[in-house]
């Protein structure tokens, strides 16, 4: 009898334990967004450049896309009828900055956990699920697993890939607390190996170098060649802040991996294009940077739109909309130069794209208060269309191409079975008008609806 009772007790304990496991598993699944979601009746732009798939469904299980097709069914999934809305991949921006602006000012002292998280939330609200910062981050980012948690998407806001601390020329006028005060500034190539060894400890996603400037302020070729050589020794790619065609040629000779800005002084030639293609060097045009730099010589068409205003730090709208600021811009030689540079950048991105160079989204947003985070990425799409690219190609640039630059395209950048469900749900089709990317209905990050777009007044 005792054996029977013991056996029955044992069975009861096993049964109770099994029930407990099921409860815990279901609770964990709910808490971590592991319930199924079936998005019905949508028009799909998958990010790969194909035609729109109409009247399509997407089944999400956990964080990933489980199926794509018509008339999908799933027992237990929460069904959301999108009633003909358009779904595209969430955007990826391969060149931004975070934590260095606040209000209408710029400083390294603004790099706090709260400011970084607030700005990453802003990117996500605008449909940008992943960003890469290039060169202006601070030690705080690497403390207590902060960067790793952001990169893995464990904290609110866009995922963050960090380029760490970039390399620039020596400048005694730059104070430690300034925007670019935490950069490496080697006096000679001999200093580079030690600096790169130190940088390698934080494992940057890329190494950023600032090359362009006047002949007196340019980084010496011997130094940037050594930076590239040492970065490659640690298997890190190098992205160049570039402006001049002549610098671009020399950088290719030196082994550069990515161009982080447009070539803006001259039209690119066929020889340079051929070498970029042979070495598979991506091109991040940051057209919005040059547009912002001269747009306020007048009143741009976006100035009074709620979608733009919602992206601004407090006080920036008042600054850029003032007559005094606009008059200052009209009188600025730098603004006039930027307008010419922008026109050349438009020609170059069109020529490079048509030749088959990989073009990827990046804006340099967040480096200055006038480069509005989130809005800049949507403006960049519009400017790429202005350059002559098709909306379909532009969406691919903002999604799959950017994922390829970050080497995360196995999981991100397109809407395919098995990939992470980072989605942008739109009230209108951006292939008909690229500005329709601004008509955000919902933003999904890793299978969970996170946002309905920026809060607009």
Describe, in plain words, how this protein is organized in 3D.
With about 450 residues, the protein is of the alpha/beta class. It has 2 domains: about 1-30; about 90-420, Alpha-Beta Barrel (TIM Barrel), CATH 3.20.20. The protein contains 14 helices and 16 strands. The protein has helices at about 1-30, 115-125, 145-150, 190-200, 220-235, 245-255, 270-280, 285-295, 305-310, 315-320, 325-330, 335-355, 375-385, 390-405; strands spanning about 35-45, 55-60, 65-70, 80, 85-90, 90-95, 100, 105, 130-135, 160, 205-210, 240, 260, 425, 440-445, 450. Strands 1, 2, 3, 4, 5, 14, 15 and 16 form an 8-stranded mixed beta sheet that branches. Strands 6-9-10 form a 3-stranded parallel beta sheet. The protein has a 3-stranded parallel beta sheet with strand order 11-12-13. A hairpin with a 2-residue loop joins β2 (about 55-60) and β3 (about 65-70). α8 (about 285-295) runs antiparallel to α12. The radius of gyration is 24 Å and the shape is globular. Mean pLDDT is about 90; it is low at about 1-35.
- The global form is globular
Cα distance spanning the termini: 75 Å
Gyration radius, rounded: 24 Å
**Quaternary structure state of the chains depicted:** single chain
Proportion in helices: 25-40%
Question: And the CATH topology of the largest domain?
Answer: TIM Barrel
The CATH architecture designation of the largest domain is Alpha-Beta Barrel
CATH C-level category of the largest domain: Alpha Beta
What is the number of domains?
2
Mean pLDDT: 92
* Number of extended strands: 16
Largest sheet: 8 strands, mixed
CATH superfamily of the largest domain: Metal-dependent hydrolases
Could you name the ranges where pLDDT drops below 50 across 5 or more consecutive residues?
1-34
Number of separate helices = 14
Class computed from helices, strands and strand pairing: alpha/beta
Question: Which series of helices and strands comes N to C?
Answer: HEEEEEEEEHEHEHEHEHEHHHHHHHHEEE
């Amino acid at each position: 009898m005792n054996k029977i009772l013991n056996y029955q007790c044992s069975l009861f304990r096993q049964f109770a334990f099994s029930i407990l496991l099921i409860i815990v598993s279901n609770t964990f699944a709910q808490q971590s967004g592991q319930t199924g979601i079936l998005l019905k009746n949508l028009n799909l732009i998958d990010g790969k450049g194909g035609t729109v798939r109409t009247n399509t469904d997407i089944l999400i299980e956990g964080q990933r896309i489980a199926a794509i097709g018509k008339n999908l069914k799933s027992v237990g999934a929460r069904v959301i009828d999108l009633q003909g809305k358009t779904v595209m991949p969430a955007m990826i921006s391969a060149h931004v900055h975070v934590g260095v602006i606040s209000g209408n000012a710029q400083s390294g002292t603004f790099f706090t956990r709260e400011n970084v998280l607030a700005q990453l939330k802003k990117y996500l609200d605008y449909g940008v699920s992943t960003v890469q910062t290039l060169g202006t981050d601070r030690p705080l980012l690497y403390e207590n697993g902060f960067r790793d948690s952001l990169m893995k998407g464990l904290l609110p806001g866009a995922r963050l890939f960090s380029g760490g601390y970039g390399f620039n020329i020596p400048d005694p006028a730059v104070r430690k607390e300034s925007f670019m005060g935490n950069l490496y500034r080697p006096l000679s190539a001999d200093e580079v190996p030690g600096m790169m060894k130190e940088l390698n400890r934080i494992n940057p996603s890329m190494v950023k170098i600032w090359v362009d400037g006047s002949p007196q302020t340019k980084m010496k070729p011997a130094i940037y060649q050594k930076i590239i050589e040492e970065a490659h020794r640690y298997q890190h790619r190098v992205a160049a802040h570039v402006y001049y065609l002549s610098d671009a040629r020399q950088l290719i000779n030196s082994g550069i991996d990515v161009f982080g800005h447009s070539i803006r002084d001259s039209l690119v030639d066929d020889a340079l294009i051929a070498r970029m293609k042979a070495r598979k060097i991506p091109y991040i045009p940051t057209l919005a940077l040059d547009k912002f730099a001269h747009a306020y010589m007048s009143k741009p068409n976006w100035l009074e739109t709620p979608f733009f205003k919602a992206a601004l730090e407090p006080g920036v709208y008042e600054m850029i909309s003032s007559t005094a600021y606009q008059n200052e811009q009209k009188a600025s030689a730098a603004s006039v130069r930027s307008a010419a540079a922008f026109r050349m950048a438009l020609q170059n991105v069109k020529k490079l794209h048509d030749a088959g160079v990989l073009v990827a989204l990046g804006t340099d947003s967040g480096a200055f208060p006038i480069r509005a985070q989130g809005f800049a990425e949507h403006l960049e799409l519009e400017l790429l269309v202005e350059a002559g690219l098709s909306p379909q190609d532009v969406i691919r640039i903002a999604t799959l191409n950017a994922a390829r630059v970050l080497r995360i395209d196995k999981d991100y950048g397109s809407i395919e079975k098995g990939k992470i469900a980072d989605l942008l749900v739109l009230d209108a089709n951006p292939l008909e008008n690229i500005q329709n990317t601004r008509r955000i209905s919902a933003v999904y990050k890793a299978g969970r609806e996170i946002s309905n777009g920026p809060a607009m007044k």
